[in-house]
C-alpha cells in the first residue's frame, strides 16, 4: 500500500477536505489529518477544537464513514 523504501513500505499521509459540513461539527476545508500505516491501519486526527483521534482498520473505512456522499475527499 505505501511507497517502498530501502527499509520497506512507508506510512502515507493524507488530509480530509470537506466542501460541505453535513454534521455541523467539523466545518469545511481541511478538517482532519491522517496516516495509513503499511499494514493498512489508518489513524485520523480531527482539527476541531479539542480534537480527537480515531483508529480504523483501513483507509476505505475512513472514506465510507466520513465521505458523506462526496462532500469530503481524501487528498494524499
The largest β sheet comes out as: 5 strands, antiparallel
- Between the first and last Cα atoms, what is the distance in angstroms? 13 Å
Mean pLDDT: 89
Percent helix, as a range, is: 10-25%
Give helix and strand order, one letter per element, not per position. Answer: EEEEEEHE
Oligomeric category? single chain
Rg calc: 13 Å
Strand order of the largest sheet: 6-5-4-3-7
The tally of helices reads 1
Model regions low in confidence, pLDDT < 50 over at least 5 residues = none
Q: Would you tell me the structural class of the helices and strands?
A: mainly beta
Structure description:
The protein is mainly β. The chain has a domain of 50 residues. It is built from one helix and seven strands, in the order E-E-E-E-E-E-H-E. The strands form two sheets. Strands 6-5-4-3-7 form a five-stranded antiparallel sheet, with helices on one face. A two-stranded antiparallel ribbon has the order 1-2. It starts with a strand and ends with a strand. The mean pLDDT is 89.
Summarize the topology:
Layout: E1 4-5, E2 8-9, E3 12-18, E4 29-36, E5 42-46, E6 52-56, H1 59-66, E7 72-75
Antiparallel strand pairs: 1-2, 3-4, 3-7, 4-5, 5-6
Question: Could you name the key traits of this structure?
Answer:
single chain; elongated; 11% helix; 76 residues; two-stranded antiparallel sheet; 7 strands
How would you sum up this structure in a few lines?
The protein is 11% helix and 43% strand. It has 76 residues and is mainly β.
Amino acid at each position: 500500500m505505501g511507497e517502498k523504501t530501502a527499509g520497506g513500505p512507508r506510512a502515507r499521509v493524507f488530509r480530509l477536505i470537506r466542501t460541505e459540513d453535513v454534521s455541523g461539527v467539523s466545518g469545511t476545508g481541511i478538517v482532519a489529518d491522517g496516516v495509513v500505516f503499511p499494514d493498512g491501519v489508518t489513524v485520523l486526527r480531527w482539527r476541531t477544537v479539542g480534537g480527537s483521534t480515531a483508529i480504523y482498520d483501513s483507509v476505505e473505512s475512513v472514506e465510507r464513514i466520513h465521505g458523506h456522499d462526496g462532500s469530503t475527499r481524501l487528498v494524499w
